[in-house]
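Q: Structure for this?
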Amino acid sequence: MSVIEKQKNISRPIKLDFKGIPELELIELQLIEVLSDSKGTVRDMCSHILSAGGKRIRPLLVMHIGMAFGENSDELINTAVAAELIHMASLVHDDIVDESGIRRNKQSINGKWGNNFAVLGGDYLFAKAFAIMSQNGLNNSMNFMVEAIQRMCYGEILQAEDRYNTECTTEKYYEKITCKTATLLEACCGAGAVVAGAREIEIKLASEYGLNLGLAFQITDDILDLTGIASVMGKPKCEDLKNGILTLPIIKLLENQDYHNWIENIIEDRQFNDEIIDMVGLALMQTGIINECYETIRFHIEKAKNCLDFLPDSMCKDFLLSLPEMVYKRIN
Amino acid sequence: MSVIEKQKNISRPIKLDFKGIPELELIELQLIEVLSDSKGTVRDMCSHILSAGGKRIRPLLVMHIGMAFGENSDELINTAVAAELIHMASLVHDDIVDESGIRRNKQSINGKWGNNFAVLGGDYLFAKAFAIMSQNGLNNSMNFMVEAIQRMCYGEILQAEDRYNTECTTEKYYEKITCKTATLLEACCGAGAVVAGAREIEIKLASEYGLNLGLAFQITDDILDLTGIASVMGKPKCEDLKNGILTLPIIKLLENQDYHNWIENIIEDRQFNDEIIDMVGLALMQTGIINECYETIRFHIEKAKNCLDFLPDSMCKDFLLSLPEMVYKRIN
């Protein structure tokens, strides 16, 4: 699909899907190659993860940021693949933490093989990511990735500590989503820029682009959890809320005097039947909260796009500019 | 404690404990330092792990192998600390896999904080280990460690696949313990030698020393699980057997025609009361299997020691030669 076609697509709600982008094929092939030397259950888990697909937004970011500064290179592809493996590993472990049985319309690794195999499968993917970076001497990429993983763990732990906490603030929410999601997208952009030989200020701006894209991405994710279409999302509706993960729309509802007691009782009593879930969705629209959240996303999207002003025009820049818009309009 | 005192100690069963060795203090301080920037539950988990102690055999190996070739250095200490963090991370995750509630006479991380925090706590420790190596440019150490972690995951998965499998062979057992235990000790010695600037053949011999020490270490562990003193071991007796992990003594008992049906029934019916456990212990002694296993350990210990023939005499060499003997005589 050409960039112009992509631009057309973002004038309506879209399914985020990068099929047809040549770099995606490179990444898929490389992922298959990297995981092909596994055996037994490890191999089965890797195949399951690969076939479940995924948007591959992180490796695409690494590559497009890198190619906006220079040529494609093995270093860039390897960094991209390592980033996706880290993301995969974190999803496998997150599903254990959240006790999620479904991921991308398929059984999750813990759902299919149990927690014990899922812990080890995730570790294996982390190790593979580091093996790629280490064996190819990608020190700069590694520095970005290790920092990101530490923050991702910290963000997930913050989230676990704060379950069902109806006193959670917007500030705390931002700290959590920055760590658990945005930080890896930030690292992908930073690493892509460094690998391509960008200057310090360019690396900083690329990273800030990734950070804001990541924040926008997570806030849409949190809206879609509450209002999205389960079959498109590939997981049950309102899973976060049912797990006590209070996201921006819910925090805003808790801050609304008229709704505070009602939603607090629902959360504290953990009454999450279908009727209640639908009522929460309506309340979020009636109060204008969904709209406010989309405005917040718009803010981060503009901020992300502005970070790219310094880049000369190119196909890669076009892709990087369209990505935040696609994130805004996405339904999955 | 001087090396001579250590040598004296190994003429009787000993509690493996390296207190008094100056390098140990360095390692402890560095571990505390490295984990001191954590916050909240992560910090609590790190403190819990640090205060539970441990033999620190892996960092001591890195340092003594390194110092047998050259001077102590920051590179060596950082590699040593990373090795211990990787070991700690793997223990945290293994306890989830094995559903162990107790480790070193304290609650395990999953026992105290639950699986969800334990998954993330382990990930954090892995990330810390890689951060240290990455930020200090320890590429060679990293190559050894990423290879080891992949094999450790593979070994743990092999073990999980093979639970309660009464057809497990000695060959398979070796594959498992090589991957899950010996490979990290091998990597510690290889990394220590590389960091100290050893030649290729020396690195190979140092690694082989670590591999054989690791095999000896794991086989004694497996004997102690069946015959050891629970309070000294810091975990319940026969935990492996109860979890369906069939170790060398049990595999040998299964291969014994007279005992085959009896032990197979016990395993298949999962009848593990105290009386049965004591009877299994007696059977292992009556058949001479415990003795055979100690002979196997002796074989690996001699092999390990022979690998060090090429080293010039030094305090470090003395320590490295005494270590296998201590492993043989250990009660913990």
